[in-house]
């Protein structure tokens, strides 16, 4: 490499504390995570949203194809939209960390209680699509509408005070 090439490279990633290189490497990893998450988001929402890095920083924004590709802060998303984007990021992160191993099961712990009925429908439809694609999705929730929509349930019910519970399995009695 010529001296000017080394100077250019130093300008991009060189710093005494290593911070420029660290940010550069994190940016590459984040770009790959966004690519993987967008593949999942495409399947979950039919292509309405796309996750993007904001101004080459480590911040993310959402591009809305229904609004002429307007970029939106994640803070402006509804509960259902936020759920889909978060789920896509979680699935993308799973893909990223499981390059040599397939992770085919997930647990979603709560997060449904703040969703309105339309957003809850969107979230449950996304879970149904994931299930149909071969993913096993466990949902931990107290939301009654979710209990009605999920065909297989393991129920945990308080029994006789603090620290005691009964577990009810599908087509079985309690344990």
From TrEMBL:
Keyword list, A-Z: Exonuclease, Hydrolase, Nuclease
One term of GO molecular function: exonuclease activity
Gene3D superfamilies referenced in this protein's UniProt entry, alphabetically: P-loop containing nucleotide triphosphate hydrolases
Pfam families: SbcC_Walker_B
Keyword 4Fe-4S: no
InterPro entries (UniProt xref): P-loop_NTPase (IPR027417)
Protein's name according to its UniProt entry: Exonuclease subunit SbcC
Lineage: unclassified sequences, metagenomes, ecological metagenomes
